[in-house]
Amino acid sequence: MEFQADIINRRLQDWENWVFRRHKGIPNNKRLFVLACMDERLPVEQALGLEPGDAHIFRNAGGLVTDDVIRSAALTVGLFGTREIIIVNHTECGMLGATGEQVTRRLEEKFGLDLTQVPLDPALPELRLPREALYRWWKTQTDIDRAALEQVELLRNHPLIPKDVHITAYVYEVETGRLRKPGEIYATRTSQAFYR
Ligand SMILES: [Zn+2]
Asked: 81 C-alpha to center of ligand 1: Å?
């Protein structure tokens, strides 16, 4: 028979491993890094079937590859044992439709600022962009399925992401509450192939 203290000690050991994961080189449960949009209609963990502890999750406007995505992904695949990256973009995203120039001008009006003069990273005041690059910095999109595939390529081709990291993108449909592979839109399919 097992003593209760043995059970408690095992739990304490599990907890110590949880707390000191990074010291001990223990990866997250699924060895997974997720890049997803910050949108509140996108339930990332639920959509991907993830529990607490399963993944490193990075969310930003659009779920798009930025310098901080590279920074975070490089650390997790390079140092923290992660082997897989999943990108989740979604329909009706706020990053769709407007151009980078429109976003820039709207914010310049709103804040009464010239954004080319604003440090984009307050801890890195050297980081400023000329106007044309600033427009591209917002990374606005016109087609979310194409954007999803482009994010895969951006990561796949980056020198800080090793070639053996498994990278996949999905589009979450806000209107149906389901994931799809980029470009696989059920509602646009016809049954033509069946009749051939
Ligand atoms: Zn979004």
From this structure: 28
